[in-house]
Specification:
18% strand; single chain; 3 helices; alpha+beta; 41% helix
Amino acid sequence: MSDSLADLEQHRTAVLAQIVEVGDFRSGSITAISGRCGKPNCRCHLPNQPGHGPNFRLTRKVDGKTVSETFSTAAELCKAQREVEAFHRFRQLSQELLEVNEKICRARPVEDSLSPQEKKRPKRSAKKSRAR
């Protein structure tokens, strides 16, 4: 891709349009949990039994604390998977937007918009410092 200012601005517009199309998203990761329950007479405690599961959980950070959410249906799990995938796409596009904006900032010429008063250097103080 060319690094002309017009091309970079066009690329930024395209990335912003893609971000708008991302849709619903949420952060976190989905993991499968298997394990044994607390009932001693349950089948999961028998030898060579895999235990209960897999049970899927969405784990994410909220205010510095880990929060887990379980899904009671396969439809809820599929919805959450789509939302997490959309979040990963959003992060990728955000990174691309940052990179193209940095290129735009480097490519944009500096405008000399200082007024004559701002161009004047401030005068040095006539007072001498007493510190020695």
